[in-house]
Amino acid sequence: MTTSPDHLARARAADSDRRRNRVFKALDQLTAAGEEISVSSVARAAGVHRSLIHRHGDLHAAVMARAGQLPPGKTAGTQVSRKSLLADVANLTARNSRLSAHIARLERRLSEALGQVAWEASGLGAPADVETLTRRVTELEQQILDLRAELAERDEDLTAARAANRELMNQINR
Fold first, then answer.
1. Is-contact 62 24, C-beta < 8 A?
2. Are 23 and 42 within 8 A, CB to CB?
3. Which of 4, 60, 110, 138 is most enclosed, with most CB atoms within 10 A?
4. What is the pTM of this model?
């Protein structure tokens, strides 16, 4: 028994039409029942695979259009729409990102503060009483200047004593 290619093409087209009609019928039933409309729920109700809806742009567009509509007899205040849920998810995701960044900044500041305390407690850091140290440094610098002046004066005395000693030695040797 041979089958013509034309006969197979007609059979496939009829099967495709039956499945498409089942998708539209399931979509109408879910809308009338007020149930959730998604690609998965429509495919499940129609008895087809989700890929059928995804492959056919018109079926996918019809499902997405119905998913955004309110069921008959429902008002906007009694049911949450898919769009509002998606907006809530986007807002919460953005808020989560902002809070994560804020927590990271606070952790960095806390780490720096604890590091500074540990640095100072270890004795490696600068002491808290900088004014006293500055005064002591000034006193020591003044003392260095005084000692250098005294050393220069002694050098002059030593040079003069050596010159006098040479002169006396010259007189004794003559």
1. yes
2. yes
3. 60
4. 0.42
CA of residue 139 relative to chain centroid, distance: 52
Contacts of 38 (CB under 8 A, 6+ apart): 63, 67
The residue with tokens 């998604």 is 38
C-alpha distance from residue 13 to each of 17, 21, 42, 63 (Å): 6, 12, 21, 22
| Sequence-distant (≥ 6) Cβ neighbours of residue 128 within 8 angstroms | 120
pLDDT in tens, 127-166: 667 788 888 999 999 999 999 999 999 999 999 999 999 9
Each residue's pLDDT tens digit, 38-93: 899 999 999 999 999 999 889 888 898 888 775 555 555 556 777 788 889 999 99
Taking a C-beta distance cutoff of 8 angstroms, is the pair 95, 89 a contact? no
Query: Sign (positive/negative) of CA torsion 44, 47, 51, 55?
Result: negative
**How many Å apart are CA 26 and CA 31, to the nearest integer?**
8
Residue 89 C-alpha from the chain's centroid: 18
